[in-house]
Amino acid sequence: MNYPQIILLATAVTLVLVVLAVREVAAGSQQNRALASRSAMLEVERRSASPMARLDLYLKKTEIGRKIEKRIIRAGVRIKVSTFLLLMSVVSVFSVIFVWRTLAPIFGVLSIVLVGYIFLAYLKRQEERRKEEFIAQLPEVARVLSNATSAGLALPTAVDMASEELDEPAGAELRRVAQSLKVGQSFDSAMAELRDRMPSREIGVLVSTLLVASRSGGALVTSLRNISGTLEERKETHREVKTIMSESTSTAWALTFMSVGSLFLVNLINPGVIRTMTGSFGGQIVLAISCAMMLAGVVLVRRVTTIEH
């Protein structure tokens, strides 16, 4: 296999992607300057006609594009699906070239998996952080809805009012619910989408209470006030558990980076040893066992430090 030609081809593809990304950034700056002189309709039409917009629309029609878009929305990250995948591709190509030349070709290929894991882990972390922030706001959400309904407002109107009063992320999520209701979506469907975007037991309890109240009525104000107190207690409990487990979580991340860094450390102490080991059957067995044990350690630590709440 002609490795120099493969590396040159990968470098050329990376440069093309970088040029496209720079062009997109420049186009974004130009669009901001054009907002003062162009109408909103023309601006939307021009954006939808751009190559990145068409690529983004195409990706959203695919299964993987829809899944990534859903995760981006959950994470609250302001980035397009196309931009996210292009960044992942560029970083993957650079990692393949670097690891291929530094360690061995097989690890260069495996680095693609690591890059994908890091990007998706970032989204997962942002999802969890945003969900935790939303859960922390739930007592306030329940109080605002309780006050609004006790004042005689209908439940959809109370949700709309709460979306204006609450900070992010609760304000943004309730705003999505209010917008869905304004375009004719049913209350049950809008709340089901909220529960799907923010899956947790606390949110499920609040959503179930609102759904029951919208269908059959009942003492909604009293229920919301009781839920508010219960959610406040759960928030304090979750905060204590998170504080206790913070050290173990840091250990899990440290173990992940140490596992990867150990390969570079061994290669630094004895240059070329990893490439030599991958060239022999015995070395491949040793590397496979070592990587399997490191992966098992990372998975076990993460399983131990993960708490369902």
From TrEMBL:
Keywords: Cell membrane, Membrane, Transmembrane, Transmembrane helix. The keyword S-adenosyl-L-methionine does not apply. GO terms for cellular component: plasma membrane. The chain crosses the membrane at residues 6-26, 81-100, 106-123, 252-269, 281-301. It is a multi-pass membrane protein. InterPro entries: T2SS_GspF_dom, T2SS_GspF_sf. Residues 142-264 form the Type II secretion system protein GspF domain. It is found in: Cell membrane. Pfam families: T2SSF. It comes from the Bacteria. PANTHER family: INTEGRAL MEMBRANE PROTEIN-RELATED (PTHR35007), PILUS ASSEMBLY PROTEIN (PTHR35007:SF1). This is Tight adherence protein B. It comes from Murinocardiopsis flavida. The lineage of its organism: Bacteria, Bacillati, Actinomycetota, Actinomycetes, Streptosporangiales.
